[in-house]
Amino acid sequence: MIRKIIHIDEEKCTGCGLCAHACHEGAIDMVDGKARLVRENFCDGLGDCLPACPAGAITFEEREAPEYDSKAVSEAKQKKLLPGGPSRLAQWPCQIKLVPVEAPFFAGASLLIAADCTAFAYAGMHEEFMKGRITINGCPKLDGVDYSEKLGAIIRRNDIKSVTIVRMEVPCCGGLQMAAQKAVMRSGKNIPCQVVTISRDGRILG
Fold this sequence. Notes:
Shape: globular
Mean pLDDT: 90
Oligomer: single chain
CATH class of the largest domain: Alpha Beta
Number of helices: 7
Structural class: alpha/beta
Largest sheet: 4 strands, parallel
């Protein structure tokens, strides 16, 4: 059938991964450092991914494509919440205190800086945030340190494409957010940075 569907210009794509996160239907994956529409029947044609792309690499087009399959999307979302699903942790170690400042896995990475508790509070953490990203995590209250210096070194000394900060709504997570944002600002690099807050009952607040 002929319908409206997204088109990703791989030449413009910087590989930041923000569109893959913004696509709640799971139609986009990161493949070889580029965003690709890998499940055409999962694309609803509404374009939640368009405003998330800082490079303007995503547009609409009308062409022959499979019909949007809401049932398949729903089933896929349910499977993500079942025990035994695939881990999306792409490297080891992952704790901010333990991860090296320079490592091959940081090359061209979309970086996720996550508060420790988010993985327990939010059921879709692996699929919605960790997938396609390099994950580092910590808790400034427990570690008793200011992460900004180390995070700044990681961002300065590696080719980081984007930074996503996932924190809890509790006040102590403000320290992680401030440290991460300070690190991005001090790096002198123009890197897309977004903050997502998780509620104590497992909802995305923004």
